[in-house]
Amino acid sequence: MEPGPPGCSRPAEPGPRLRRLCGADQEASVALLSRARAEAELQRCVPAVAAVLPAGGSGERMGVPTPKQFCPILDRPLISYTLQALERVCWIKDIVVAVTRENMETMKGIIQRYQHQRISLVEAGVTRHRSIFSGLKALAQDQPDSQLSKPEVVIIHDAVRPFVEEDVLLKVVTAAKEHGAAGAIRPLVSTVICPSADGCLDQSLERARHRASEMPQAFLFDVIYEAYQQCSDYDLEFGTECLHLALKYCHIKAKLVEGSPDLWKVTYKRDLYAAESIIKERISQQICMVMDTKEDEELVGHRLEEMLKNEFSHVKVTSGALGHTGRDLQQIILEQCYNFVCVNVGAYEFEETQKLLDVLKESDLSILYPVVVISDEQKLQDSLRQGATIIATLIKERNSGLVGQLLVA
Amino acid sequence: MEPGPPGCSRPAEPGPRLRRLCGADQEASVALLSRARAEAELQRCVPAVAAVLPAGGSGERMGVPTPKQFCPILDRPLISYTLQALERVCWIKDIVVAVTRENMETMKGIIQRYQHQRISLVEAGVTRHRSIFSGLKALAQDQPDSQLSKPEVVIIHDAVRPFVEEDVLLKVVTAAKEHGAAGAIRPLVSTVICPSADGCLDQSLERARHRASEMPQAFLFDVIYEAYQQCSDYDLEFGTECLHLALKYCHIKAKLVEGSPDLWKVTYKRDLYAAESIIKERISQQICMVMDTKEDEELVGHRLEEMLKNEFSHVKVTSGALGHTGRDLQQIILEQCYNFVCVNVGAYEFEETQKLLDVLKESDLSILYPVVVISDEQKLQDSLRQGATIIATLIKERNSGLVGQLLVA
Fold first, then answer.
1. Is the ipTM of this complex over 0.90?
2. Domain boundary at B224, B255, B279, which?
3. Which one of A204, A238, A249 makes the best mutation probe of the B interface by having the most chain B beta carbons within 10 Å?
4. Which residue blocks in A9-141 are alpha helix, DSSP H?
5. For residue B369, what is the domain's CATH number?
6. Where is the D-ribitol-5-phosphate cytidylyltransferase C-terminal domain positioned along the sequence (chains A, B) (predicted)?
7. To 10 degrees, what angle do helices A128-141 and A242-250 make?
8. Which of B234, B253, B279 is the last residue of a domain?
9. Do A243 and B193 touch (CB under 8 A)?
10. pLDDT tens string B251-266
């Protein structure tokens, strides 16, 4: 198979991708639009932006041995989703990730496997602040032989906040350029209290007057680098809040930007569950149903399409692909839809379907390929309804245990 | 079918139950142990305890029209899980739920459908504090004709925290009896900051010195009722924190009790996803595999059991049930296991399996009953492995769209 156009390279496992799924043409035009908009923004406000991701944590709150940034979601490590979210933003020139020495090889493997770009690795420190400082030092070097160049603005983000959107990144960068520092905030979910030494309530804070400080944050590079250079060992050991350093050492009052709920940080095991569900939902919006014949497409395909289009944003029906020369299959693969459903009508002609499965499996696309047989022509309407339920189930659950099963509606 | 013993009544939909799943004998002995322990506790510290659940919220943060306490998780409203968690605690005598007038019928329907007990309904006020006050008033009446009696200690909990455990309830009740008030706390996940009027950073709080105030909380009834009677309209309109009222109006410094991560509040849509995954995990721990013959049980059943027991805490194999007189089926149903898998070996004898499905469907137990056929005797080991994968998938995903499907390993 021909590789895609440059800049559209596809990761080995398309299933868990976060990027909006679309056909090649659409993709190109979206990319162009996004680039045009981004270039306008660049000229206006963001001459040179880099990002630093501290990823040296051990994830002790998760209660699992794997550090949370490396926990798999649909078989792909959490940090890879976060990198993907940053990579989509073309005006972020460099992404510096700080990982511990023992995870360096793991991280290199992730970058290679998921074809991440513009990533530099540095060794993490023993605390969050020390890891960020490592990343900043790498950006500050600005040596002729260094791949990195000193940015005007640096974004600091968490490896475990995979759902960050371009919109909020642009807001914090723009605000940082104006104010020197900026950070995303969210309303408090719980009241914050201050316990006394004996574990009793001393004071409860007025919830409406306070906010949770979230990520991303952005800084004029010179401001935050100066702050880190000046700050005490105590700060580096026990502090966690970059905005606080900018205030304390550079007297910069950060601009606070209201963020959306999806900025949340994967902290506990339940957050992994939530992240998985969100990712599943995002990549389950497109279905391509492949029918045996034009007649089946007319008789069954379009009625199934009707039933399914309330639940999915894109439902497409094609036919004739199974009497294949390789070219028809090639065409299907080029659709770039990650949810294929073969629908056989009336007969268990599993052999042809099996051939399609085999070809899809051999391609490097790892496309999902559940199979549904609408068998009961006597009660077509009921069968169709059950078929639609099965299709929706397969697409949404996305469980490889059922791949290739002959499901009968 | 005979109803279960008193106190062990089963809700219409066993799937989403949180109670530990166990056989009838185990259940009885657990119940006895739990009762004995609870009675000892009662004498020591909890003479009369009631709970108040404000459930009048509109759930605007969820971004869905249904108030979050009524959002379905595996087809069952969230609040029903929370009620179940409180009901399990036998020393909580009354549970007063405050719901808005328009949701009163919905709530009555939920209580009936899931056979909730010890529940009284009161009309919610327009704010959280007013709803709690309604609940307290109902408990304070203590009229001869009232079903409720004034408790010594009252627990206040949220309808949207379904995973509360008896352990933390007992801790707050015990602490409230000693200190007058007590509440669960958790470490802060994010730094809390105080924005200035122009939306810039004024001050960031030291994260280690502060805590998030969570639920449950407990109070000597007289303390919290006094506080609500004295508090201002402003408090009732804009306040949210009961511990604060006890401090302000009764000078009671609440004892703060460290809670576990599962006390978290379902606030955003992602929390519903997380809750669903947690509930699925809890109710997917037991499998009962039903085989056609004793030979199949020996040949296939016990090998599947081996493969599955790493993933599930309870795997059981039975056979012979499909040559049924009704008595065999009765026996299977009495196992009280919610995950049945029929395993046919070598042949597609779907008819017998279908009979079992029908009987299970007709019983009021709504048991799940995926079906697996181990068909390929040539490559038994491979088939078994694939069969185990399919079984694990079905049990864990728990999607009714696949019920009754003939799945071939």
1. no
2. B279
3. A204
4. 24-44, 78-87, 104-113, 128-141
5. 3.40.50.2300
6. 285-375
7. 70
8. B279
9. yes
10. 999 999 999 998 999 9
